[in-house]
Amino acid sequence: MAQTKRKRRRKHRGTQGGRIDTRPARGRARSRAEAQARARNRSKKKKGGPRTPDPPTWSSAIKKGAIAAVVFVGLLAVFGQTPAAALAVGVLMLGFYVPMAYLVDRFVYQRYLRKEAKKRAEREEQRTGAEQGGG
Asked: Which among 38, 44, 114, 128 could bridge 49 via Cys, Cβ 3.0 to 4.6 Å?
């Protein structure tokens, strides 16, 4: 009688997008919770997550101030101000918004740097504490 059992084939590890996992499976299967945590970490790295603020520059402050001043002049024109008066107030607002935008950007960036330094110090403390405690 002919043998009907077939040799077991390996699973295809490709995704629907065509990407193939190059790493082989590890020794033990992941639990569902571990798989979900890993998927969450992967998606955080790609998109979403906290944005890192850029260092403050005067050019970005000028752009933000100009946008705010244009919006302000438009609102004044809609609410019945003469164009000359709206432009005069717009120039004043530009003079106010540009330094304010720079100061806000600088505050946000310095706060981000302090937070990162604190995280780095905590990681370093944990690393050195683990090395001292383990020996």
From this structure: 44
Q: What's the predicted TM-score (pTM) here?
A: 0.56
Return the ∠ at Cα 94 (arms to 90 and 98), rounded to 5°.
165
Helix axes 58-78, 83-134, angle to 10 degrees: 140
pLDDT tens, residue by residue, 107-120 = 999 999 999 999 99
Q: Where are the domains of the chain?
A: 56-134
Spatial distance between the Cα atoms of 18 and 35, rounded to a whole number of angstroms: 20
Distance CA 15, CA 79 (A): 57
97 in Cβ contact with 69 (< 8 Å): yes
